[in-house]
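Listing 4. Sequential folding, example run.
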Amino acid sequence: MRSPSMSKSVARRVTPRPLHTPMYREPVRVHRLGPRDVDEVCERVGARVATAARRCALLEGTLDRDALRAAVESVAPAWVARSRGRIVGHLTATLLDGTGRAWVPPDGTSFDDPAVLGALLEAAAPAWRDAGAHGLSAWAYDDPIEVGAWAACGATLRARRGVRALSTGDAGPAAGLGLRRAGRGDLELALALDRWGDPPGAPAPGDDERRHEVVALLEDPEVDYLVAELDGRAVAQAVVMSLPARRGSRANAVHLSAVAVDPDRRGRGLGTALVGSVLERARSVGYAAAEVNWRTADPRVERFWRGRGFTPTHALVEGVLPA
């Protein structure tokens, strides 16, 4: 399903010029990030991360201030919104080659009012389009007000990220379920297992694209491509990798992805057993937390991950750029 766009007329209704809201008695002005804005943006990001951590203990609330400042200074371009001489919002994004999308990280934006977000997007869109982007993907904190602000600007909720702490109480695998790390020689098996994870009705990657991605995972020494076997037959898979340090994310965490179960054996607890085994494996080698992203289109997927103890911390929203 194509993400809804935000036309100029809609953007102007969301973001009148000059912008007057009950919160702001003065117009909001948007301009490119300059040297004098850096300290204030860093303070906003730090406060935002700390607030998110107070709401959810699974998130880190401390920052490396020097690294944050270096990151803010290196982003180009970036935009800030000011009202009454102070910053009331900021926006940055990474333009990923080949995706046609501008990617906004959780600390890539802040806004004191949803209309401020609309003003920032309208200002940034021309530069992003000139750089080859046509769409927008943003990781926001999983907060109804924040996600609602993105929705008001035409974006749609696509996925959530959940986190859970690892403890000795995690369930292990079901009796007879074996877990092994796949290698390059398992390519054809891995391709078949990967297809089990394709969501119904969603466009699947092409054969060449899928093969390239799976080969890269199998050959990456920092990735565990795990195959679960029962009675000598592969019945499920999971891809596990260590997470780099990221602002606001849980430290010492492992990321789960590409979790899939044989369609003929679903509903028998294999997914639960697989995840339990993977979590116990991660805990035993010293990881303190686990993270997973899931699509929101299927309520069963949401229930599964919540049932495995994962608490939503972030939301992925997507849309097309304002015209």
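-- end of first protein; second protein begins --
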Amino acid sequence: MRTNGWHKWHKGALSVFAAVLAAASIAQDDMTYLDVYRDYAAGYWWDEISGRIDLYDTTYYRSGKYSIRVYPLSGVRFVHKRGGISRYSPYLNYLEFYVHGGGNYNQQFYVCLYVNDSACDPIVVSVPYNGRNAWYRYRLALSDLMKRGGTYVYGNITGVKFYALSWTNSFWLDDIRFGRYYDPPSNDVSITADFSSSSGGWRLLSKRMFGYNLAAWDWCGWEKDNPNNYNYMKQSLINMGITFLRYPGGAASCKYDWVLNKNIIDNENYNTDSSTTYFYNLLRDIGAEGVISLNYGSGKVYDEINPGRSAYHWIQHSVSMGNRVAYWEVGNECYGYWEYDGRGTPNDHNPDIYALFVIDLINRIQGSQDSRIRNMKIGVVGAWNELYGDGGIRTPWSPTLLSKLRNNSKIPHFYDIHFYATNAGKENDSHLLYAARYQLPMVIDKIRTDFMDANLGQRVPIYILEINNAERASKQTVNIYNALFLLEAWGRAVNKGVQAFAWWGGTVFDTQRVTGNSSSTLYGYNREHIFAAIKVSYSGCQTSSTTYYPIYYALTMLKQFARPNWNVKSIYVPDNPLISAFLAYNPNGPEKRILLLNWARSTSINVNITVSGASLPYQIRSTVYDDSYYLSPTLKSITPTSGTISLTMYPHSVVVLEL
């Protein structure tokens, strides 16, 4: 709870009243909005309260099952924990919210935005007469809300505040969100797909852009008592087009003894068949490249007594096995206090100490007599959320680390970030679209300018070696919007020049989990909460009974769209923000592809594509995945008309066109 002074500044500003925007006559798709509160503070919005506020009141609610009850002379402020949102990416026009008087009306309250963490001029509104017993919608123009001293201010929106001015009677708030359009955008979209190599924007793909995380602790995929499971996991990875694997896990990496195949901190023995040798074999069997996260938390650079905790000995072992792994990152999320680091205060999670580990390892590799060892690629871990002062991180991590490496002339081969779109428990479908299309590209740009340019003096490849909707599985994890997030984030990462992309699954298939966010505001019919792409029966981890989740199908669709050594780019869609489009072609063959995503929750959208730089066949093969209750993607044929491809995309669907 905030203390005195939190709302004092509003005194003397109560003469500022809102110009309420006219309500649109036609409802528009929910996904055109960006939610702030919908049953809970959404995405990276966090709530701060002053006075008496009930954030989960059930007396009245417009959607979901909760609303906010605001008592007299009390307030709530929503603070964005990732640097705020830009009005212009996406282009936002107004703040929308609903009020309910609970049988009363004329309760006054003010609404205030924070831009770059500073309060703007408040706008005073009240519960109207026709909102006393029903939900009433307000739309306040951002051009009015983003003013300070009457002058429009530019910057990121970092806060939204509501404060009750009335001495009597509560009122209720619900469905607080930013809107783009006063009327729904067009449901007819025109796209130009230029496949000519001179059109620009093309990015060449490597195997590392089709990645997946596997963990040594997975007892299901590596199950030694069920040898069919290994073959099933191998074939599933092939079906999903995986050509890059990360091992031995996330946080487990900093507790892992690769010789014993054991979590030495928690004294947990892993399945024999999940050992390093089996990982090497899996890479060979599916034709994939690999990256290994070395044990930084409880390991050393060089340890002859305990070689299973020695980074250099693990690299030597890989070389002796035929150079199975060429990419090595030091630790997992070593900047975070949640990650194991046995060095103790003040050396734990310390960027200077971490840098010394990296310098020592690079020195040993560069000084090796074995050219195969000298060719190993060493990467470091970075925290993109420290750009926004996020808690739980030893800061300044990246500036300190990269400066020290630069001063010692030890430049890493790559910089790894982990990108989770929302905080666990705050999952929200609209934030998946925002995170993938707008936030991730901004983060990549800021890493290059604020970290690499400023501290390293040069730019090294950015790898995204963990990415998912949130750091804990939920209903959203196993439903279609997470599949759309995967494909959108992958396409935007390619467009920004990211050179590795590995989806966080931990396992390919797993048994049912029952904890996590199951909010009715999240779309989807799958109720299990697991990160895996496939659910199998709990009894004996039997693969004979399986459920393929949308993530599995998203990866098969990505395989259909593009392959290593192909070129890919994103293309502009001017008419509707819920459609995304990407192009791919094989420079060494005839294949040309178009990937289309429809993020709409309830709206079918007509898409018309004019193609240049490629000839159109008489019929185009179309692969469609539209989330039809566990059904796999379906094949259709489209006949172009007058050089134009026309199709109707169903809500929350994916289409791959083969020219």
